[in-house]
Structure formats: C-alpha cells, structure tokens
Amino acid sequence: MNEDDLSVLDFDLDADFESPLDEIEPIESEPAAEPDPDAMLALLSSEDISQRIVAARAFSEIQDERAIVHLIRLLRDVCPLVRVSAAYGLGRNPSLDAAEALIHQLEKDWNGYVRKGIVWALGNCGDRAAIAPLTKALKMDIPAVRLWSASALAQLAKLEYNDIIAAIPPLIYGLRRDPIAAVRGNCAWAIGKLCRELPSNVVYATAIDALLETLVEDEDMGVTEDARSSLLSVGDPRGLQMIETLEKEGLV
C-alpha cells in the first residue's frame, strides 16, 4: 500500500454511502462545454497524474470506444483517484473486456473507494460474469461497497431469468442480516426491482416473504419504508394486503 496514495484521499470508507458519481469534481471547462474526446484520449497516457484523472473523468461524461483499452490499463494505475476515475469511465463505456478487467480489479484492489466505483461500473456493464463477485462483495466488503453491490445486482433485471434468480438469495441475506440499515434498505429496493421481472414462482414468493418480514420486523423506519415501497412497486397481492392491514392498525 502506497502512503502517498492515501494522502490524496479524504473520505470515510465506512460512512461513504453517496453515489460514486457524486464524488467526481466537475471537469474544469467553460459552462456547458463538452470535453474533447481526442484531447482526453491523449491525456489518458500522460505522465502527469492530475491529467490522467481529468481525462479518465471525462469519459464518465462521454462515450468513445477508443478510450476503453486505455481506461482498462488505468485500472492498474498506482494512484487510487486515477483507478476510480477509470472505473467511472468504464461504467459509461461498458464492454465485455471492461467487465472482465473490472472484476479482476475488484478482487485485488485494497482501496474501498475504488472498489465502490468498480461495483457501480459493473452494474452498468450488465455482464452475467459480474454476479459472483458482486454477491461476494455484498457479503464481505465494507458497508459502502456492500450498499452499491446491492444496487449493481438490481441492474441484472435487464439480463436473463437465471441471472436474476442467482442475485435474489444474496440480496435476501443482506436484507435480513446486514448490520447497516442503508445496506438493508438498498437490498429491499433491489429485490423489488428484480421481483418485477420474475414470474410467480417459489423464488418470487421467497423474495416477497423476505420483504414482508422486513416490513414487520426491521427496527429501522427507513428500511421498513424501503420494503413497503418495493412491495407497492411489485404490486403483489399479499404485500398489498399486508400494507393495508398495517396501515389500518397504524403500524406503518
């Protein structure tokens, strides 16, 4: 671990639950000016760290497949701010090669801020190969990475049925077991999004049961509200009936 890398970071890994893109400073340019792709491509290979950061961040705003190979290389940069900026860029410029590189870097990157950006990018890539590393991160990583892993798994709704059902069990585990309320809330939201793509089968019923259990039993009001919102968005009859009953009793 390079101490110089740590000195350029100013955040609390365990409390940093904002969107990864919220952390990006605006690129210094005239208002409404779009970064020049050709100029940014050249800067991706600059020896100046600050120029590599600016260039990688530019590709979180613009799409250009020529940048992908360079952004993949920058995932291994010595500076964590370059690495996380490259992850954002790959999230906006997804490809199979990008997904493979992101998965590899997620497994070995020591910096939680970078891993948070990587799981966000993997959600955008929509590659089924990301399911296993994302579920591992949801169970084992720091809170901010767990939270964004849940969000990334929700993006699998655009994939196939088998991909969706692979994501449900780890999300239910996070919903029931994670000690951080914000993570449990994101799991509730993700389960609701995935349930909208499922037929009425045992996997769907198990997911609805988990949301109902959370609605009644979770001690955090924010989490119960997330569970309630998910049940309403799914429109499951059991869920709607439970919400109506709890509302009549003044419990929600």
Description:
The chain is 65% helix and 0% strand. It is built from 14 helices and no strands. The longest helix has 17 residues, at 161-177. Mean pLDDT is 87; it is low at 1-15 and 20-32.
Chart the SSEs and their pairings.
Layout: H1 3-7, H2 37-43, H3 49-58, H4 68-74, H5 80-92, H6 96-108, H7 112-125, H8 131-140, H9 143-154, H10 161-177, H11 181-195, H12 202-217, H13 221-234, H14 237-248
Number of strands: 0
Helix content: 55-70%
Give the termini separation: 48 Å
Overall pLDDT, averaged?
87
Oligomerization state of this entry?
single chain
Core attributes:
252 residues, 14 helices
What would you say about this model in short?
The protein is mainly α and 252 residues long. It is 65% helix and 0% strand.
